[in-house]
Design brief:
The protein is an all-alpha fold. The N and C termini lie far apart (55 Å). Helix content is 73%, strand content 0%. The protein has one helix at residues 5-39. Keywords: Membrane, Transmembrane, Transmembrane helix. The chain crosses the membrane at residues 6-30.
Amino acid sequence: MTMPWGLAACIVDMVWAVLAGWVSTCLVIANEVARGMRSGEIGPFVVG
């Protein structure tokens, strides 16, 4: 049984929207961390 083209396109659109939102969120978080490190609000990360 095959999937109709309209349903396949809808699924691809939803997956694309989720991935775009995830990437956007990661970039916003990275930008905020970088801004905090530049301004001195966040110091170097100490591991161990």
